[in-house]
Amino acid sequence: LSNRNYNLTPAEYQKSVDLAVLCKYLWFDVYQSVVEDKKFLAKYGPRIIHLIGSSAINAANGTELLGTAEGGIMITLYKVNYLNPTDFTTLNEWYFETMHHEFAHVLHQTKTYPKEFDSVSVGYYDALNWQDRSNKTANMLGFVTPYASSEAREDFAETIARYITMTDKEWNTVLANA
Asked: Is the pTM of this model over 0.85?
């Protein structure tokens, strides 16, 4: 199931168990508690959580891949071997934001979002150089992160993930920059 375009390391067993427990309690249980349709996760949730020990580095632009969503059924999470359950900031940045981002992709691979969203920021997306934008520049262009400015589907997923995981102070900083 691994992407052979990257030099990847297997996930350590205990780190995988720890991340699986975190996924259950801080991802799946949370969705289950807030959605009205109690079959929501059974219908739309990922069927496979694929764990990779290392990150995947894109040699062309030096960006780091933290997760992927495939075919509406599988989410891959990277950097599992770096998991530190006591470091909230890193947990949020590397795993929780990634979980919600990739789940947003799973959702829009199985249940489409309004096509009008794709036209909101036309002319501002930059698929080739998004990584060269600062957070503030991206915010000023109307995006929550530089990665959101790469294309409409990433904008959609990043907006959901960041809205869910950012503190009020962090979200208000994005709005102030915009």
From this structure: yes
